[in-house]
Design brief:
MetI-like_sf; 261 residues; ABC transporter permease; cell inner membrane; mainly alpha; globular; MetI-like; 2 domains
Length: 261
């Protein structure tokens, strides 16, 4: 198969992967009161209905606050963990590293049920902090991964030289180590934010009537009705993810941080 043939295969593959998004994009402009394809009209009303829907607005607020706090705490927790796993050699290091990555291997429905059993007696279900603690379990591993990758590409001798010249441990970290891992740290924070904002399965177990994240609000909405506003909301969320990733890639080199791991 020549270059033209491989190019055709790649184009067909990308079209296959993008087809669902393209269908949703086209459907978001339909003027019907129910989902249908192909659409038979054109309007922007569905986008206005997204922001007019109170459950969507509250869901965006809950998901935004939860994702922001989760990303911040994941970065705070991920840095010392990555430093310990990268710079220190101690017994049980491999087991601890595997423990940090284990939430990525366990089905989210199992994690959600376990978190429900843990958080319900406290009680932290149906609260912001319950959602944040639940989301930390699946976001911290990504921060540890990206920060560890940045640390492995940084020269530890620069920090040692600063300590030799009289800098305290905190000063050496703030002036030497932190700038060196900035791209990995912020990339992990962005990944944590997007994962938390989009988390559905775990949120179903630990949310309730007072704190309903956007993915849960969408599931509750489509349980009784389906109209183009769902497609419009989906398009807006895809655009949000694309804009965030592009900005991070241009400013910090997200792919470089992930490849170096």
């Amino acid at each position: 198969m020549g270059r033209a043939g491989w190019a055709a295969v790649l184009v067909a593959l990308y079209l296959f992967l993008l087809a669902p998004i393209l269908v949703v994009l086209v459907e978001s402009f339909d003027d019907a009161t129910y989902l249908r394809f192909p659409p038979q009209g054109f309007t922007f009303d569905a986008y206005g209905q997204v922001f007019a829907n109170e459950s969507f607005r509250l869901g965006i607020q809950v998901s935004g606050v939860t994702a922001a706090v989760t990303a911040l705490l994941a970065m705070i927790a991920g840095v010392p963990a990555a430093l310990a796993l990268t710079r220190l050699r101690f017994r049980g290091r491999s087991a601890i590293e595997a423990a940090f990555l284990s939430p990525l291997l366990v089905p989210h429905i199992v994690l959600g049920l376990a978190l429900l059993l843990i958080l319900a007696p406290i009680p932290l279900t149906d609260t912001y902090w319950g959602l944040i603690l639940a989301h930390l379990g699946v976001t911290v591993p990504y921060v540890v991964r990206t920060v560890s990758a940045a640390l492995m590409s940084a020269d530890p001798r620069a920090e040692e030289a600063a300590r030799t010249l009289g800098a305290s441990g905190f000063t050496a970290f703030r002036r030497i180590t932190l700038p060196a891992i900035r791209s990995g740290l912020l990339s992990g924070g962005v990944i944590a934010f997007l994962l938390s904002f989009d988390e559905t399965v775990i949120s179903l177990f630990v949310s309730g009537q007072n704190t309903v994240p956007l993915p849960v609000a969408v599931l509750q909405y489509v349980e009784y009705r389906s109209d183009p506003s769902i497609a419009s909301l989906s398009v807006l969320l895809v655009l949000l993810s694309v804009v965030v990733v592009v900005l991070v890639e241009r400013g910090l080199g997200l792919r470089r941080s992930l490849r170096s791991g």
